[in-house]
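In the laboratory, one determines a bound structure by crystallizing the protein with its ligand and collecting diffraction data. In a computational setting the workflow is compressed into a single prediction: the sequence and the ligand go in, and a structural description comes out. We illustrate the idea with pyridoxal-5'-phosphate.
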Amino acid sequence: MAYHYDYIIEEAPGPVTRINGREYLYFAGTGYFQLNARPEILRAASEAVLRYGTGSATSRSITGTTPLLLELERKVAEFFGTEDAAYLPSGYLSNIAGMKALAGMNKFDVIFLDEGSHYSLAEAALTTGRTVITFSHRNVEDLKDKLAGKLSPGQRPLIATDGLFPLRALPAPLREYADLAGQYDGVVWIDDAHGVGIRGRNGRGSYEHYGLRSERLFMGATLSKAFGAYGGIIPGDAAFIARVKAGSVMTGTNAPMNAAVAAGIKGVEIVAGHPEMREKLWDNASYLKKGLRKIGIPADENDLPVVVFAPGDEATLSAIHSSLMEQGIYIQLARYKGSGNSGILRIVVFSTHERSQIDTLLDRLKTVLRDHKADGPDRETP
Ligand SMILES: Cc1ncc(COP(=O)(O)O)c(C=O)c1O
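The predicted complex, in structure-token form:
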């Protein structure tokens, strides 16, 4: 199986994308609205570089703060309806900066971490210096047992999880976690890298999807996916954001690159101003999933834009992947947290896919599955 580092993408990803010298119908990546190539964003990024240079060559705590950074943080706060926001060089770092800030504010004593959480959350938890206890993936009962069994009287939990787990687009049961945080006087931290922009009426992500808002709920995310830009964000109340900004991550890293900041401003503006992109994405996701079920691939009846399936062993998955590529279709053969050692096939749909492109995918997939006699039940993956 070709490892994905062998696939060289030769232009901005879109519904049709050039990879290793050939154009493919492209159903991969996380550019859910395909803003990575949107002219307004490219223009803003270019202008920012010409005006401010690549970067400020110093951290925010020295002279790294530009007017662009202040504007982006204001826009992010406005988008999420929070008092303030912090912008960081990556979503990965947002988790570290956010959880360390909560530890510094003494908001919790023990971390309860979903065992399937993103790498960055697991690493962030360790940097807080607090005890970390894992609970079974998305398992409220296990979390309840662990909270009851592991917390000493008076100790408060931080419940840490992805808002939307990337590999399968599985949502975390946040209502229950919010309740439990309330019961134990604790807090919830979510990494909502995949939820922001695409979930909730205003695209505010997983909390908004469930109608949750409270001073116990905190989040970090990235602008590198739905927003077509780059860098991490943390929206929140003023005291918390001040703590994030005073922390080691922001004082110890260069201010993010100006092209990324300007792209972020435009990306947030576009996502805020175009709710119809979300409607189209949800619509495409439902259409794709209905079509997949018709050809025997189990796909949840929801409007999340990702489907994974594993109709056979590693060799079968690899053969299906290769046959689809021969026919000009690129889906991902994923090896990621939760995929198991054999990997898993993964389809991602965008708001910009035409129905006819989804139909072509379904048609070719049906033939390829038949050719590989891969119509058995899905192999269970962890
Ligand atoms: C769930 C999740 N969290 C965090 C990140 C890291 O975000 P960034 O690429 O901005 O560092 C990713 C991947 O990009 C992710 O999938």
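The pocket of pyridoxal-5'-phosphate is lined by residues 90-92, 118, 120, 162, 166, 191, 193-194, 222, 224, 232 (CB under 6 Å). Keep in mind that any predicted model is a hypothesis to be tested, not a measurement.
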